[in-house]
Design a protein that fits this description.
mainly alpha, 0% strand, DNA binding, BAF, Barrier-to-autointegration factor-like protein, nucleus
């Protein structure tokens, strides 16, 4: 898929394992700091939040923006990344 960013392609290339939250496409350094502060230090923990929201991208994006300080672009890219990972691995 040519429209994928290198970060998204790398994230989707293998299981999440113990990857830090900064590996998630759309998570900037600043957003990663905010997420770690809130207890979301690993990508699988952020994925868990996405799954708790029943993979509802709009709800997840609102949560990232309101509770974690994400920009709209970061929220969209992050939710898309986790959605694509679910499609590949679940």
């Amino acid at each position: 898929m040519d429209h994928m960013s290198p970060k998204l392609r790398a994230f989707l290339s293998e299981p999440i394992g113990e990857k830090d939250v900064g590996w998630v496409d759309g998570v900037s350094h600043e957003l990663a700091i905010n997420l770690v502060t809130k207890g979301f230090s690993k990508a699988y923990i952020l994925l868990g939040q996405f799954l708790l929201m029943h993979k509802n991208e709009a709800e997840f994006q609102r949560w990232l923006i309101c509770c974690c300080g994400a920009t709209e672009c970061e929220a969209q890219e992050s939710s898309n990344c986790l959605k694509e990972w679910c499609t590949c691995f679940l």
